[in-house]
């Protein structure tokens, strides 16, 4: 099943770790909050994506079924 | 304030539809034609009889599908799909009537609840039966007179044995976002009325984790009439694509403010006086969009007409802005309000909206810093689509449309001029300063 990355913005406090671990898909805005690339997550990045999701200090990053 | 059109209401006749399929399509349907006289239970029963329960969950859903009823709270989502989703989502669903009209420019839900509470309460019971729910609530602002009236209506119905489910009245805080579905669910759960991240959707997991149907009170009133008179009767008003009627709050350029029921597809120029004294029309309230008056005069009250122009029908707020009013200054006032009404949960929203509001204040000044416009568009792009709810998206829609429609006024400001140097406020906003963070519950 294809997955997509989403940030729960009510939990995210802008640590920015996700953008360091996954620069391919995540950049930070001028206030330090993540901007996540749209669309399904490429298979090749699976491992890095999981790492970013589990390492988010507030668990705001979610891997959800692609809509 | 006046209510309804000038078409006389038919003589009360037990359970008969008001003028089915007539030239006036039986309007007004929800509010009495003559003034704001509240309809008591006896009058309601004389006119409509008891709620027509169908004896089984699910039966009303195909009727609502045939009627083409959509949500009247602003999103225009097909009602039958929401009911079907809740009915199939699991056991013991919850049903909440949403009367928390947070839009400062809208009066229609308050008017409907005050004048025709039993249509709303009938709709609540019938919706609960349709999804198989025994847990029913009505979410209302902390307006003591309105709440007392609804409480006594609920008690009278219980005494008369009209209701299948007991109705609990739940307090909504006076916030713009208090009626957002997930904020409502959070409030009913005892938390603050703040939106949450989706998924799960409220129809999947809402109040106490159960599938929850949230319907605007006007939607419920239409549902109660469709259950009685059928889909064809409902479709006698409106257009094939957008059937039925809706309540609108009309703000005329001369300052008059009325609630009126009209069919979808009604020309905007027959709702608002759009002469040379009007420069623009706001459709859809403070999450809606501005239209130049000349464009609005060629459109009807329908998403088919409004959406290509970036606007929508929403909850029926229509404002005619006078020609001698500064559209940019008005938009700046609303931008400040929208920033203060952010729940402050999502980084892009609580960082972006105050900056956008400050940029709008700058653009509203004589000879503004030209960087303000560029900054504003950059921040608008940064907040869009990045909230747990649609507050940032709706706010940005409103502001972008203001900058487009009032672009000549921006040029004016650049030259140190303004159409209204006195800056008399026109758009309705709550008086006083913002409420504190504690006022979310």
User: Which geometry of chain A do the CA atoms define?
Assistant: globular
- List the helices and strands of chain A in order: EHEEHE
Structural class of chain B: alpha/beta
What's the overall average pLDDT of chain B, rounded? Answer: 92
Low-confidence stretches of chain B: 1-16, 19-23
- Please give the most extensive interface between any two protein chains, plus how many residues each contributes: A-B, 14 and 16 residues
Question: What is the CATH class designation of chain A?
Answer: Alpha Beta
- Give the tally of β-strands of chain B: 9
Strand line-up in the sheet with most strands of chain B:
6-5-9-7-8
Helix content of chain A: 10-25%
- Distance between the amino and carboxyl termini of chain A: 11 Å
* Tally of distinct domains of chain A: 1
Overview of this structure, please?
The complex is a heterodimer of chains A (67) and B (441). The longest helix of chain A has 10 residues, at 46-55. Chain A has helices at residues 17-21, 46-55, and strands at 3-7, 26-28, 34-36, 61-65. Chain A is built from two helices and four strands, in the order E-H-E-E-H-E. Chain A is α+β, with helices and mostly antiparallel strands and 67 residues long. Chain A has one domain: Alpha-Beta Plaits (2-Layer Sandwich), CATH 3.30.70. Chain B has three domains: 41-235, NADH-ubiquinone oxidoreductase 51kDa subunit (Rossmann fold, 3-Layer(aba) Sandwich); 245-290 and 304-322; 327-425, de novo design (two linked rop proteins) (Up-down Bundle), CATH 1.20.1440. Chain B has a five-stranded mixed β-sheet with strand order 6-5-9-7-8. In chain B, strands 3-2-1-4 form a four-stranded parallel β-sheet, with helices on both faces. Residues 1-16 and 19-23 of chain B have low confidence and may be disordered. Chain B has 16 helices and nine strands. Chain B has 441 residues and is of the alpha/beta class. In chain B, helix 12 runs antiparallel to helix 15 (391-405) and helix 13 runs antiparallel to helix 14 (371-383). At the A-B interface, loops of A face helix 13 of B.
């Amino acid at each position: 099943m294809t997955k997509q990355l989403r940030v729960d913005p009510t939990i995210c406090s802008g640590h920015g770790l996700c953008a360091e671990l996954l620069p391919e898909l995540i950049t930070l805005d001028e206030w330090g909050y993540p901007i996540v690339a749209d669309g399904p997550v490429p298979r090749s990045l699976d491992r890095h994506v999981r790492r970013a999701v589990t390492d988010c200090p507030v668990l705001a990053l979610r891997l959800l079924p692609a809509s | 304030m006046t209510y309804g059109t000038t078409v006389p209401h038919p003589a009360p006749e037990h359970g008969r539809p008001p003028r089915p399929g007539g030239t006036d399509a039986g309007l007004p349907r929800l509010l009495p034609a003559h003034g704001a006289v509240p309809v008591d239970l006896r009058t309601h029963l004389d006119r409509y009889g008891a709620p027509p329960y169908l004896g089984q969950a699910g039966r009303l859903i195909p009727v609502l599908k045939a009627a083409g009823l959509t949500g009247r709270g602003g999103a225009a989502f097909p009602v039958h799909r929401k009911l079907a989703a809740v009915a199939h989502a699991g056991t013991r669903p919850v049903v909440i009537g949403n009367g928390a009209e947070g839009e400062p420019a809208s009066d229609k839900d308050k008017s409907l609840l005050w004048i025709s509470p039993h249509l709303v309460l009938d709709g609540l019971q019938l919706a609960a039966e349709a999804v198989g729910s025994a847990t029913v609530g009505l979410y209302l602002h902390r307006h003591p007179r309105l709440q007392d009236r609804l409480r006594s209506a609920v008690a009278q119905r219980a005494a008369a044995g009209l209701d299948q489910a007991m109705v609990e009245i739940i307090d909504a805080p006076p916030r713009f976002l208090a009626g957002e579905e997930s904020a409502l669910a959070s409030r009913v759960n005892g938390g603050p009325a703040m939106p949450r991240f989706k998924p799960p959707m409220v129809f999947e997991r809402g109040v106490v984790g159960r599938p929850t149907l949230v319907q605007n009170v006007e939607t419920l009133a239409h549902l109660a009439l469709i259950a009685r008179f059928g889909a064809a009767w409902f479709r006698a008003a409106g257009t094939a694509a957008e059937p039925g009627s809706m309540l609108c709050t009309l703000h005329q350029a001369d300052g008059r403010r009325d609630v009126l029921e009209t069919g979808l597809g009604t020309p905007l120029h027959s709702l608002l006086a759009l002469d040379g004294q009007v420069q623009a029309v706001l459709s859809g309230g403070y999450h809606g969009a501005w239209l130049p008056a000349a464009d609005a005069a060629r459109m009807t009250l329908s998403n088919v007409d409004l959406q290509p122009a970036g606007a929508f029908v929403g909850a029926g707020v229509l404002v005619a802005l006078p020609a001698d009013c500064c559209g940019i200054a008005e938009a700046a006032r609303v931008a400040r309000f929208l920033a203060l009404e952010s729940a402050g949960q999502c980084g892009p929203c609580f960082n972006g909206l105050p900056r956008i509001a400050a940029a709008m204040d700058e653009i509203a000044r004589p000879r503004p810093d030209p960087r303000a416009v560029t900054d504003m568009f950059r921040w608008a792009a940064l907040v869009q689509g990045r909230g747990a709810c649609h507050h940032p998206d709706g706010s940005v829609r409103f502001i972008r449309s203001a900058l487009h429609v009032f672009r000549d006024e921006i040029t004016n400001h650049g030259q140190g001029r303004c159409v209204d140097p006195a800056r008399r406020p026109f758009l309705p906003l709550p008086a006083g300063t913002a409420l504190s963070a504690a006022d979310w519950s």
